[in-house]
Amino acid sequence: GYGQPGYGQPGYPQPGYGQPGPAQPGYGQPPAQPGYGPPGPAQPGYGQPARQPGYGQPGVRQPPGYGQRPAYPGQGYGQYGVYNPPPELTAEDDEGSGVAFDVAVGTQFPLGFGPQVSLEIPGRILFQGELLWMPGAYGSAIVGLIEAFGGDDAVLTDVVRDALSNSFVARLSGGWRPVPSAGFEILIGYTTISVSGDVAADSAARVLDGQLRRLLRDEVTGDVTVSSQLHNFHIAVGWRWLALDDHLVIRAQLGYTQTVGAASSVEIPQRPDIEQAVQPTFSKAASEIITSDVKLPLLGLTLGYRF
Questions:
Q1: Considering all CA atoms of the chain, what is the largest pairwise distance in Å, rounded to the nearest integer?
Q2: DSSP state at residue 208
Q3: SS3 readout for 117-163
């Protein structure tokens, strides 16, 4: 058949000879690449990487950040092409991520009872302040503890028994809540106790020795005024509960306080000459006895509101 008329000549009318093949979807487009979709007609997203876990179908626009968070349980969650907004954090999940301010009232037995303010900042760092009033019953409890722990050296008990009534206590604390989802708290701080009251002259004389004791006991009638400023450190551990949509705050604490310094004085208005004579010795002796004897366990309980 070679040499037949017209064979090999251009334009010989044969179906599709020399012409591009029949029009097919994707004809002439590059072959498929690893990880890419199959060749085909131009479609939105064609040539983009194939579907990956957490992303929608190719060609479907997703909001920024889609697929960056794992899917969450619930209707429509985890499906391709569905935007899943992250769930709102619960109060428990959000523990320690913000600022909390509490106002409460309660007691630190046997120091007194009164208002308390607490502040928690990010990192679960705690700050706490208290102003307490010491009633007579609390003062008697302190005397009992001094006698129990001080033994034969607790010569100051007769002096502080009356002077402690109606005393004022101020406390400043700092601490930490180590577990984000729990209410366990650790606090350490400073306590100051202002003591002032009238006591019998012979009771005040017990602080002194020798001639000064006899002078105060025999030459002064009536009461004398004894004042002391006690400087203490304290440490406490406790638990905090939240209720009523995290607005009701209950705290319970177990602590310890000890006097590390004191400044004491005696006033004898009826005999200023004797006051001048005994003042230096009384101040030193009373401060030493207070520092040695005042070691107290503490039990705290407060009820407050969180803003």
A1: 157
A2: S
A3: EEEEECCCEEEEEEEEEECHHHHHHHHHHHHHHHHHHCCCHHHHHHH
Three-class HEC string of 23-40: CCCCCCCCCCCCCECCCC
Specify the 3-state DSSP secondary structure of 189: strand
Q: Which tokens is 138 given? A: 């609390």
Residue 207: partners with Cβ closer than 8 Å, 6 or more residues away? 155, 156, 159, 282, 285, 286, 289
| R_g over Cα of the chain | 42
Q: Label residue 13 by pLDDT band (50, 70, 90).
A: low
Instruction: Report the predicted TM-score, pTM, of the whole model to 2 decimal places.
Output: 0.65
> How far, in Å, CA of 11 to CA of 23, rounded?
20
Average pLDDT, the chain: 79
**DSSP label at residue 269:** T
pLDDT single digits (tens) 79-97: 555 555 555 555 444 455 6
Helix (H, G, I), strand (E, B) or coil at 219: helix
Report d(CA 96, CA 45) in Å as an integer: 44
If phi > 0 it is left, if psi is from -120 to 50 it is alpha, else beta; for residue 242 that is: beta
In whole angstroms, give the CA distance from residue 112 to residue 170.
10
What's the CA gap between 164 and 140, in Å, rounded? Answer: 8
CA distance 300 to 307: 22
**Calpha distance 76→267 (Å, rounded):** 82
